[in-house]
Amino acid sequence: MDYRILPVGDSALTILFGDQIDPEISRIVRTARRYLTKLNIEGVSEYVQTYASLMVHYRPVVTDYEELAARITKALSEMDIENGPQTRKTILIPVCYGGEFGPDLGTVSAHAGISPEEVIRRHSSVDYLIYMLGFMPGFVYLGGMDPSIATPRLKNPRERLEKGSVGIAAGQTGIYPLVSPGGWQIIGRTPLKLYDHEREKPILYEAGEYIRFVPITEEEFTKIREEVEAGTYQYQWIREG
Predict the structure, then answer these.
(1) Beta 127-133 vs 140-143: how paired, if at all?
(2) Using CB atoms within 10 A of its CB, is residue 72 exposed (0-12), middle (13-18) or buried (19+)?
(3) How many angstroms separate the Cα of 102 from the Cα of each of 12, 32, 72?
(4) N or C: which end of the chain has fewer CB within 10 A?
(5) Euclidean distance between the first and final Cα of the chain, in Å?
(6) 183, 189 in Cβ contact below 8 A?
C-alpha cells in the first residue's frame, strides 16, 4: 500500500493514498479511517475523508506532527487493507424528476441529445458510490454517473435551491440537503430529509455506502413528504453481502 503523510498547518496532517478518483483508492481510504478511528490515537480530534486522502486533525497541546505521523505509519503497517466492511449498503432515494422540481431536465436532455425520459432512466439506473461528504452537511460526492448525461454547470448560479434538489454538474451528480445557492443543473427533487440535526444520526448515509435514485410522481412526492414530516416514513435500504 503506497501513501504519503504531509503536514497541513500546525494542527492537521493528510495521508495521501493516490491522486485520482478511483473506487479502490476510496475503499482503502475508508478502511484506513475506520481502522485508525478504532485505535483512539491520543490527541486526534477528527478524521476527514476525501476522494483519495484522509485528513487527520489533532490537538497540538497533546501531540505534534512528527509523533503523530510516526504512530500513523506504524498503525498503517499493521492494517489489513483487505479486512474492510463486506456488507454493501444502498439507500433508495425517491426523486420527482422534471417540472417545478427539475427545471433543468430539458437542458440536460438537449445537451445529451436524448429525451427527458431517457435522461431519467439513465440517471436512475445506477447505484452511486458515495466517495465523500462535504460542502454542507449531507452533501454527497457520487461516482458512477452515466457520462452521456454529463452537462456543464450553470453560467449563473441560482441564489436559492430547495433542499432535496438533485443536480448534475459536468460528470457528477449530487443532492442539496439544505436550502442553498447553487450552480448545478437541477433535474429533480427528493422529499426525504437527508440532513436533520434533531435526528440521532443527522446524516442518513456515509462515505462508502451507495445511493440509488428511484423515480416517483408528484402525488408520491407529496405523500412521502407528509410521512417524512410526520415521522412515519420508513427509509429504505438494501443490504448485500
Answers:
(1) antiparallel
(2) buried
(3) 40, 38, 46
(4) C
(5) 25
(6) no
User: Whose grid coordinates read 430529509?
Assistant: 193
Q: List the one residue out of 60, 31, 57, 61 whose CA is nearest residue 45.
A: 57
Nearest of 145, 203, 212, 199 to residue 172 by alpha carbon: 145
**Where are the alpha helices (H) located in the chain, listed in sequence order?**
23-39, 65-78, 105-112, 116-123, 218-230
The answer for residues whose C-beta is within 8 angstroms of residue 233's C-beta and 6 or more apart is: 192, 224, 227
Total number of residues shown for the chain: 241
Q: What is the DSSP string of 112-124?
A: HTS-HHHHHHHHT
* Euclidean distance between CA atoms 48 and 54, whole angstroms: 6
Residue reference for cell 429525451: 115
Grid cell 438494501 in the structure block, residue: 238
Q: Which residues pair with 15 in a beta bridge?
A: 5, 54
CA distance 64 to 69: 8
C-alpha 151/C-alpha 165 separation (Å) is 16
- pLDDT tens figures, 87-122: 789 999 999 999 999 999 999 999 999 999 999 999
β-bridge pairing 44-49 and 185-189: unpaired
CA-CA distance, 202 to 60, in Å (whole number)? 29
Cα separation of 46 and 241, whole Å?
29
Task: Tell me if the pTM is above 0.85.
Answer: no
Phi/psi of residue 222, nearest 5 degrees: -60, -45
